[in-house]
Specification:
Layout: H1 3-17, H2 24-41, E1 45-49, H3 55-62, E2 67-72, H4 75-85, E3 94-98, E4 111-117, H5 125-135, E5 136-147, H6 157-165, H7 175-184, E6 187-200, H8 201-211, H9 219-225, H10 227-234, E7 240-252
Parallel strand pairs: 1-2, 1-4, 2-3, 4-5
Antiparallel strand pairs: 5-7, 6-7
């Protein structure tokens, strides 16, 4: 299969399971942060890069007067969400576009705010951020939510685990590297926050092999090999780590 087809397969599976994209354990934190930003900037048009599980989208439309455009590569997830919420009046404010992020089907300067939660680490970040920037108004707000590496994980040991476990995984960033990356792409840092959540690496490995059964990698062997690093950097106990989760708010810069 193509990489896009693999991504669509993964999204469709996780839409129902909710382990990776907008899981319940992080929903309250992300929702409160997002609504706070919406109430601060009062965007008229919000672009959501990825439907996620639909729970965060539902909270967004109920707590904002904005018109919301959702770009989602997985048509099955869109259809399932529309079937579930078709009688909800709040959903009349949502327009769905079945499309990919590398060729973002949004006009120049269309959005006052763009939201990307839990999709970034399996996207081609350089190309995608170019597309996100193009779709935002000058001074438009980019709201990011995603797992990052521990601040001292300079070797990217958690990245190595995820690349072995999940074939579509691209990269996690260090928090400061992500802020630098956004700055180089004409996004000015506004504010951020960090929380930590338990993640069971054995559960993750088994979950991913259920989606991509032909993978020949053994991520659990890496945990054993790098056990001391996982203990030091991520407080590993058994197979459970403390996983850093980052929310960052950035503003699209005007040209000098």
């Amino acid at each position: 299969m193509s990489r896009l087809a693999d991504i669509v397969t993964f999204i469709a599976h996780d839409y129902r399971k909710g382990l990776i994209i907008e899981p319940e354990k992080r929903l309250e934190h992300v929702k409160n942060s997002l609504i706070d930003v919406v109430n601060t900037y009062h965007p008229g048009v919000i672009i959501k890069a990825g439907l996620g599980r639909g729970l965060l989208l539902n909270e967004l439309v109920k707590n904002s007067d904005a018109y919301v455009v959702v770009v989602e590569p997985c048509l099955a997830s869109i259809l399932e969400f529309m079937s579930l919420y078709r009688h909800d009046p709040a959903c009349e404010k949502i327009k769905f576009i079945n499309g990919e992020f590398n060729d973002f089907p949004i006009d120049y300067y269309a959005g006052d705010m763009l939201v990307c939660v839990d999709y970034f680490d399996f996207l081609e970040s350089g190309r995608v951020v170019d597309e996100f920037r193009r779709a935002l108004q000058f001074d438009g707000i980019f709201f990011f939510g995603g797992v990052v590496l521990g601040d001292e994980d300079l070797e990217g040991v958690y990245d190595d685990f995820m690349k072995m476990a999940l074939p579509i995984h691209n990269d996690f960033y260090l928090r400061e590297d992500l802020k630098t990356f956004m700055d180089l792409n004409e996004f000015t840092f506004v504010k951020d926050s960090m929380e930590h959540y338990h993640a069971d690496l054995l559960e993750l490995a088994e979950y991913f092999i259920g989606i991509f059964p032909h993978s020949t990698e053994n991520p659990l062997a890496l945990i054993e090999e790098k056990k001391n690093m996982f203990i030091e950097l991520y407080k590993l106990e058994g197979h459970v780590i403390s996983e850093p989760y980052y929310i960052g708010v950035f503003a699209r810069r005007k040209p000098a």
